[in-house]
Task: structure prediction
Amino acid sequence: MFAYAELARIPQADFEAGGRRYGVYGHDWRVMPPVAWLALLAEREIAAEPQATQPPRVTEPLLVLSQPDFAAAMREALRHYGQPDLLRQNPLLRSRLVIERASAQAGADERVAVLQALIKEAAESLQRAPRQVKSYRALYHTYFQPASTQEQAAELLDLPFSTYRRHLQTGIARMSEILWQQEVGGSSRGSP
Result:
């Protein structure tokens, strides 16, 4: 029954209560998001044999990152935003977020373009919230239309360097949250 529902055994999560050992089963929603899972279950309901319908196979395995690893990869992608050759090495290219948008058969160039689009969309979504516009502007002058140095970016924004850095760090953290929610939740659009 667990295999039918795509629930795998997770021995690391086993526990003991009242002298009795319990096993834990679960499903990684980043690998197969809820919509795909429901579609698979619907196909299995009408299939002639219970296991006749197999889950879709991905040509390249997804890379499932922890939230801190995801945030680090996102920061690295921001640093290399305008350098597609360096973005080709970013682990986010194998994340569910990118593969879902680009397709499992997409080449590296297409995945890089999708990653750049996702980053830009997440940053631009910050403009919708008045309190986050300053963070967006710091991101814009640092990564999207970069000034020569961060000091020059702060000068362009007419901000003290420490204030500029605070806005930049806030923007990076907020973008990371937006993209992480898309990665684990399956939503292709971020919200401020």
